[in-house]
Specification:
It is a single chain. By secondary structure, this protein is an alpha/beta fold. About 40% of the residues lie in helices and about 15% in strands. It contains 31 helices and 28 strands. Helix 10 links the parallel strand 11 and strand 12. The N terminus is likely disordered.
Length: about 750
């Protein structure tokens, strides 16, 4: 099968995945999820080659995946990482591995693959000579922290040394794992991710029976012993709680299980602690839990069980080390509790706190489910894997990255960036500031790279205050890519890059070239305006230098094309941005307008002076028509204070609420000086017309009499006349929708991909 992108056929990359064991450990279950996700793609073909027979073989085959077994000598296959660290055992293993490596290399040649991908430490090391003999590029997928607190020191030194030279690319399962591989070749992070069936459609209901559980292979590194000791400290305070240890020993850890059982008896917990063994259905086990505990005494590479518990809506307590904070932190609300590793007292305190306030526990469980649903899916990781494989095999298209000024709001430019990311799956997104709570949640599914400025919370929450620092932050945000698409309204076109740069210009910086319109008044009459005037000369010099780094320009409208020519002396091709509204999705009433079911006029806009929202509100004063304003910005409080009774203002709406608003609107009102008129397209997708200012980008997106009409000046009187004049108008909703189709995301992606292809040739 061939996939098609930008009009060109791209053959799938063929991959052989190697794993030394067929037991169902965490890595192997992750491999099953990975194979399921890759089976849905047409740009990759994957086969699994195992060095032993076992349950994993049947699990993969029953799901329709290609798998074969190339048996390794049993003594070599069962050598533990600690045994292998001994000199005698290591030498014996090397000698014993030679015949197997030869057989493996021969089989890889026969499989006719493009890339060899290894998933365990033993497979990593055996894969190095085998891939070299077969003449194939090698990709390591490292799922263990390569650190002395996790592995024997000789093995750490070996893995780190080999990672710098032998594999073509190294993939780590977390930033914590990547940090233990300094200098590894082509190091990339790809989180394991959650399969769709692992993520509950809603948080699980609170169980009737109180169970605190821990899931994982029984091992000293998994924390079952610490869990039992913490249970002993709180058992009397919570006599109705049952403690469950779900898992079984592997890789020679049977004695540790006996140590755990002895500890249970010594603490008098024989009737309170259950050890049911391995479970093939961890989601069902998690759904029964009141509280899920992750107690690893050493930093975990990732902490998959924490993500799986969050995906079910189960409150979690986890150790604050390794990759776990990457899973738990970053959402809008607290998710569970983090405790120091090996600290049994802190673990017991957290368990007691969670069990003593079940309402708070459930709230944190719901927050965890929301984070899992929006940020921990498997899709982005599979994009990364496929991209790395294609690069290693030499089949890849140019490495494309996306740059944007700042992701701190929900606006048309941010929706355009999401469409760019859909056109180039796996592209990293680079920005000066990123506030996940303030912009679209879909960005959480992408690899976002930020400047050091992002560490300053007040600037992240108010990007306008960062203006004096943004030239320095932008000039140092270096992007390693073959081609960068810079989505810019003032800063992203200045990000340095190792490759070529295609600038998609929403407008040359308004604060430099349209200061009075940007501020809504003479700049000399406000402190902000005076500050802008003081900074204008150095900022303008920086902007002109940045503009010269662009290899080609795209403009989002004809008016912006003229402004680019005036500001930079550069000609630009016009590529209108796409509208990005899913009209078929769920609807949710906007609370501020839920009783206006018989219709209202609508404004969707940032609340900035140049948007003229205050003028629209003034126009509706005294009219029988009602107006719903959706937006946020510095004028929010002022507009709420001045709004008459027939005007209501709503902020930070979900997509479902936006769909409801457009569906129930009579018409959209757009009075700003826009570089591109995006909101009329969004309204038009719902068959709704627009009353717009006859200027700027609206001239590109509104066909008068088809999907809207114009007023000639941004005054209350002109807007009021337009509202009154259209009271009796009827609009052909199908004609409105047909006009919008010319601005579809598919058309946008096709033309953007073509521009990238042309520039990269």
């Amino acid at each position: 099968m061939m996939s098609v992108c930008g009009g060109k056929s791209i053959r799938p990359v063929r991959v052989a995945i190697l794993d030394h064991t067929a037991e169902l450990g965490g890595v192997e279950l992750a491999l099953v999820r990975q194979m399921d996700a890759l089976a849905e793609r047409d740009d990759v073909q994957v086969r699994v080659l195992l060095f032993a027979d076992g349950p994993l073989v049947g699990r993969l085959r029953e799901r329709g995946h290609e798998v074969e077994v190339l048996p390794i000598d049993e003594a070599l296959g069962t050598t533990t990482r600690h045994e292998a660290a001994g000199l005698r055992t290591a030498l014996t293993s090397v000698v014993g591995a030679v015949p197997f490596v030869r057989r493996l290399a021969n089989r890889l040649r026969e499989m006719d693959v493009d890339v060899v991908h290894t998933t365990t430490l033993k497979a990593d090391l055996l894969g190095v000579p085998a891939a070299r003999l077969a003449g194939l590029p090698l990709v390591w997928h490292v799922r263990d922290r390569i650190a002395p607190d996790y592995l024997p020191s000789p093995l750490v030194h070996l893995m780190r040394s080999v990672a710098r030279t032998a594999p073509q690319r190294v993939i780590a399962n977390s930033r914590a794992t990547a940090a233990t591989l300094p200098g590894a070749r082509g190091l990339t992070v790809a989180y394991p991710g959650l399969a769709p069936e692992q993520i509950a459609s809603s948080p699980r209901p609170q169980p009737d029976r109180r169970i605190v559980g821990i899931i994982g292979r029984i091992s000293p590194t998994k924390g079952q012993l610490e869990f039992v000791r913490a249970a002993g400290r709180i058992a009397q305070r919570h006599p109705d709680v049952t403690f469950r240890i779900i898992g079984s020993p592997m890789f020679g850890q049977e004695e540790h299980e006996q140590e755990i059982r002895r500890e249970i008896e010594q603490l008098g917990l024989g009737t309170r602690v259950e050890l049911p063994g391995f479970s093939a259905h961890p989601s069902a086990e998690l759904d029964r839990m009141t509280l899920a505990v992750h107690a690893s005494p050493v930093p975990e590479p990732y902490g998959q069980v924490v993500a799986e518990a969050m995906a079910r809506g189960v409150p979690v307590i986890a150790t604050d080390a390794g990759g776990v904070p990457e899973i738990v932190l970053g959402g809008a609300e607290p998710v569970g509790w983090l405790v120091p590793p090996r600290d049994v007292d802190a673990l017991a305190t957290a368990m007691d706190t969670a069990l003593s306030d079940l309402d708070e526990s459930e709230r944190r469980g719901r927050a965890g489910w929301e984070r899992a649903r929006t940020a921990l899916g498997i899709g982005p990781s599979m994009d990364t894997l496929t991209r790395v494989w294609r690069e290693a095999a030499g089949l890849t298209r140019p490495r494309v990255a996306i740059a944007h000024d700042y992701l701190t709001q929900r606006g048309g430019a941010e929706r355009v960036v999401l469409e760019m990311a859909r056109a180039f799956p796996g592209a990293t997104i680079h920005t000066t500031l990123y506030d996940p709570a303030a912009t679209f949640p879909e960005f959480r599914d992408h690899d976002i790279r930020v400047s050091p400025l992002n560490r300053v919370g007040p600037l992240r929450r108010n990007h306008r205050a960062a203006l004096p620092f943004l030239p320095f932050a932008s000039s140092r945000l270096r992007i390693d890519a073959d081609l960068v698409i810079a989505s810019s309204s003032g800063w992203a076109h200045g990000f340095p890059t190792t490759g070529r740069k295609l600038v998609y210009c929403h407008a040359p910086a308004r604060w430099l070239y349209q200061s009075e319109r940007y501020l809504g008044s003479d700049p000399r009459r406000s402190p902000v305006g005076l500050a802008l005037l003081a900074l204008r000369a150095p900022l303008r010099a920086w902007d002109q230098r940045a503009a010269r780094t662009g290899d080609a320009y795209l403009a989002n409208s004809n008016v912006v094309r003229e402004r680019i020519r005036d500001a930079y002396g550069t000609d630009a091709e016009v590529l209108p941005p796409p509208f990005a509204v899913d009209t078929a999705g769920e609807r949710e009433p906007v609370p501020e307008a839920a009783d206006w079911t018989d219709g209202f006029h609508l404004v969707v806009s940032r609340l900035m002076p140049y948007k003229n929202v205050d003028v629209v509100i003034e126009a509706f004063a005294g009219l029988p028509e009602r107006l719903l304003v959706i937006g946020a910005g510095p004028l929010l409080d002022q507009l709420r204070t001045s709004a008459p009774d027939n005007v209501r203002i709503a902020t930070n709406l979900s997509d479902a609420q936006m769909r409801w608003a457009y569906e129930h609107a009579v018409a959209l009102v757009a009075a700003s000086h826009e570089d591109f008129g995006l909101t009329p397209l969004e309204a038009g997708a719902f068959g709704k017309p627009t009353l717009a200012l006859r200027a700027g980008g609206y001239l590109d997106t509104i066909a008068e009499g088809v999907n809207g009409t114009f007023f000639d000046e941004p005054t209350a009187e002109a807007i009021r006349r337009a509202v009154i004049a259209t009271r009796e108008s009827t609009w052909d909703s199908e004609a409105v929708r047909a006009h919008v189709d010319a601005f579809s995301p598919e058309r946008f992606a096709e033309r953007l991909q073509k521009a990238v292809t042309q520039l990269s040739q």
